[in-house]
Amino acid sequence: MKLRKLGPNETEVRFSSGLTVLVSYETPVAATLVGGTTIRTAHKWSVTTSKHINRWLGSCKATTVPQSQLDTLLG
Predict the structure, then answer these.
(1) How far apart are CA 26 and CA 11, in angstroms?
(2) Per the structure, how many domains does the chain have?
(3) Which terminus in the chain has less CB density within 10 A, N or C?
(4) Does 40 reside within a domain?
C-alpha cells in the first residue's frame, strides 16, 4: 500500500492489487477498481470533499455508488 498526499485532508491510497482509493478527510469517497472501473460516492459530503472528488476524477466518467460500497474498500 502506498499513500500519496494530494493536498490538505486529501490522500490517494494505492494497493498492489491495482485498487486506488481517494480519501477525503478520513472517508473513502472515490476509487478506481481493479479492472479500471471508476466509482464515486452518492453521499453528499461537504463542498470541499466534492472539490476533492471532482479534481481527482478530472474528466473521467465515474459510476455513482452507495457510500457503504466505498467504506468496504479500506477494510
Answers:
(1) 9
(2) 1
(3) C
(4) yes
A 10 A CB-CB count for 8 gives 8
Tell me the CA end-to-end span of the chain in Å, nearest whole number. Answer: 13
The conformational region for residue 71 under phi > 0 = left, psi -120 to 50 = alpha, else beta, is alpha
pLDDT digits 0-9 by tens, 19-62: 999 999 999 999 999 999 999 999 999 999 999 999 999 999 99
Rounded to two decimals, what is the model's pTM? 0.95
Domain carrying residue 26: 2-66
Give the type of residue at 48.
T
Q: Is 71 part of any domain?
A: no
Tell me how far apart the alpha carbons of residues 26 and 41 are, in angstroms, rounded to a whole number: 14
* Structural domain includes residue 43: yes
